[in-house]
Design a protein that fits this description.
2 helices; alpha+beta; two-stranded antiparallel ribbon; elongated; 2 strands; 35% strand
């Protein structure tokens, strides 16, 4: 794979991370466990990050794209 292509992919990942600052997902948590009887509940969790991380990744990808070795 060409180094400029890798730089472009990194820039696109950084752009996506800047536009979408996180995502939600659901996990199951065990509330009661009495022998054969188990009671669980769904717990919504959030994974989020700062948009500055996405901007930083775009800058790194731009540097790889611009200053990457040419064939």
């Amino acid at each position: 794979m060409n180094i400029k292509t890798i730089g472009l992919i990194i820039v696109i990942i950084g752009l996506i991370m800047t536009l979408y600052n996180g995502f939600n997902f659901v996990t199951q948590e065990k509330v009661v466990d009495i022998g054969e009887i188990q009671i669980t509940r769904d717990k919504e969790q959030t994974a989020s990050w700062s948009p500055f991380i996405g901007i930083g990744i775009m800058v790194v990808g731009g540097g790889v794209y611009l200053f990457g070795k040419k064939k």
